[in-house]
Amino acid sequence: MAAGWSAAEMPFGFCHGDYRVGNMRIDGPRITLFDFDDCGCGLQWFDLATIGWWLEIDGRCDAAFLWRAFVSAYMPALHGSLAFCHAISLLILLNEINSIRFLLDYCALDDDRWRDVCKRLDDMSYRAVSGQLAINRWPA
């Protein structure tokens, strides 16, 4: 598979399925996840990529810091993993593509909004394949 990794190399197990700040209650250092409608077993790196995608589209200046903290807490062994760093950019891009599928299935957007969606996909595609995503700025 592309980028030197395969799905068989990724950890498979319990996944939340919809990691995002809107599905978290943050109380100081304690974070509680809820909304497990989409949970199940799957590729855990894809589950992680969902929060990475939300950080990317939110445009936060501290995205790399938050990403590093999240990955270190969720799967400490991944910190500095070259395979993970390569795979996660493409999995974040897959989240962007999935969001467009959702828009196609459930939303009626005008032409201007579709242009914005396509521009965001183009921009994220470029940043993902060129290693320029905000989350890629986390040190190994």
From TrEMBL:
Domain named Aminoglycoside phosphotransferase: residues: 7-66
Keywords: Transferase
InterPro entries cross-referenced by the UniProt entry: Aminoglycoside_PTrfase, Kinase-like_dom_sf
MF terms in GO: transferase activity
Domain of life of the native organism: Bacteria
Name listed for the protein in its UniProt record: Aminoglycoside phosphotransferase domain-containing protein
Pfam families: APH
